[in-house]
Amino acid sequence: MVFGQLVVGPPGSGKTTYCNGMSQFLKLIGRKVAVVNLDPANDALPYECAVNIEDLIKLSDVMVEHSLGPNGGLIYCMDYLEKNIDWLESKLEPLLNDHYLLFDFPGQVELFFLHSNAKNIINKLIKKLNLRLTVVHLVDAHLCSDPGKYVSALILSLSTMLHLALPHINVLSKIDLIESYGKLAFNLEYYTDVQDLSYLMYHLDQDPRAAKYRKLTKGLNDVIEDHGIVNFTTLDIQDKESVGNLVKLIDKSNGYIFSGIESSAVEFSKIAAGPTDWDYYRYPLLFSILYTAI
Fold first, then answer.
1. Beta strand 100-104 with 131-140: parallel, antiparallel or unpaired?
2. Residue 215, class by beta-carbon neighbours within 10 Å (0-12 exposed, 13-18 middle, 19+ buried)?
3. 3-class DSSP state of 240
4. Which residues, other chains included, contact 147 with Cβ-Cβ below 8 Å and sequence gap of 6+?
5. Three-class DSSP category at 232
6. pLDDT, tens digit, for every residue of 119-128?
7. CA-CA distance, 48 to 194, in Å (whole number)?
8. Which residues in the chain belong to E strands, given as ranges?
9. Residue range 166-181: average pLDDT?
10. Distances in Å between the alpha carbon of 170 and those of 42, 219, 227, 229, 288?
11. Which secondary structure element, helix H or strand E, spans residue 135, and what is its range?
12. What does this protein do (predicted)?
């Protein structure tokens, strides 16, 4: 049984940065980590890549050969990967004995709530390779400063959760920059817990452009609240405990923590037993890149 994370989210939400920082953190607590890049447009990887889709297909080549734009090209690449899933399985098989997997996916959100190719790829890998995966859905924290964009992020998160039908954790990325976006209408817990969304309607009514869509927005809010499954977690890059807490949450969701409770306890004790400045000074790179702007 192999465990890992499927990292998804809109362009610019910090997926590649997250994979880089998370892989470093997991290595520090004793796990062997393999990062799998499944974004054919990601040609400048900051992390050591164990499997790279560009060895199979490149977005730039597809766009030229088939006269497609970036969105159509990405869909083509995912279709091609699905048809050649044996290639990916063969690349992953040597890693299955002792590695924890991080899958870095493209930022085209349609792939995860509208089209079926990415879902089919994931399901085939889970079934064939006996994977236990959690979807980590990154959302840029600056969306909290705009009620309309925040509602859009909630709808995207809900749609992705329902479409992929896997253990799912929504994360507000770049949380360290949230103060630079201006004062929030409500405290941060309102946005992470997704409380009574009717309070957002007053702020939306102040914007003439948003007021005319009031009925639509209210309908979307009702859909979100009726499902009652969307919330967010955050990460403070200056607090080593918050990084560990996110990993614990992921481990609990996909079962890693139950499959090796003793080993997990040893891993996290390496953090808890360390002095306050253990990671800030010895490993400054990790906390300078994790959840910061790309």
1. unpaired
2. exposed
3. helix
4. 185, 200, 203, 204, 210
5. strand
6. 999 999 999 9
7. 36
8. 2-8, 33-37, 49-52, 100-104, 131-140, 168-173, 232-234
9. 88
10. 22, 22, 15, 10, 22
11. strand 131-140
12. Small GTPase required for proper localization of RNA polymerase II and III (RNAPII and RNAPIII). May act at an RNAP assembly step prior to nuclear import.
- C-alpha distance from residue 216 to each of 3, 155, 208 (Å): 40, 12, 14
Q: Can you give the pLDDT at residue 155?
A: 94
Cross-strand partners of 194:
none
| pLDDT of 34 strictly over 50 | yes
pTM: 0.86
Q: What confidence category does residue 270 fall into, taking pLDDT thresholds of 50, 70 and 90?
A: low
Contact assessment for residue 5 and residue 102, using Cβ atoms and an 8 Å cutoff: yes
Distance (Å, rounded) from C-alpha 50 to C-alpha 69? 28
Sheet holding 131-140, edge to edge: 49-52, 33-37, 100-104, 2-8, 131-140, 168-173, 232-234
Q: Are 102 and 4 in contact (CB under 8 A)?
A: yes
Which of 232, 42, 29, 256 lies closest to 134, judged by CA? 256
Length of the chain: 294
CA distance 120 to 136: 18
Tokens of 214: 């009031």
Helix (H) or strand (E) holding 289: helix 284-289
Task: Please tell me what DSSP assigns to residue 2.
Answer: E
**Residue that is written with structure tokens 């990062």 in the block:** 35
Question: What is the 8-class DSSP label of residue 266?
Answer: H
- The predicted pLDDT at position 17 comes to 87
Instruction: State how far the Cα of 128 lies from the Cα of 50, in Å rounded to an integer.
Output: 19
